[in-house]
Structure prediction request, 101 residues.
Amino acid sequence: MKKRRFLFPLAVAVSVLTGVTAAVRLAAYHVPGPLLVVYAVLTTSAIGTSIRFFAERLATTVHRCSADGCTFQVQERGVDAGESAYWREVAAAHPRHDLNR
Prediction:
């Protein structure tokens, strides 16, 4: 959990810095102020959302069924080794094999 406490403020700082930098560069082309504010906010939001999405994807473990043609999967995040082993077993022995084909 400590890593998440450090990464979230860092992601916010990077996204705000990028949005403000882009708006400052646009100001050199005499873009109106309200449009610069909107652009900075939208850029900050898009970059912050992308960083959060990729961080969550990196921290997620996916267990898939090993049967051919089966699409069943379990996604987990922030669990210990015992719970991860449990979900791996669930993915391997789930009862829906014939429903996914």
Remarks:
- The chain has a mean pLDDT of 85.
- Residues 2-58 form one domain.
- Helices lie at 2-27, 33-58, 81-92.
- Residues 1 and 65 are 29 Å apart (CA to CA).
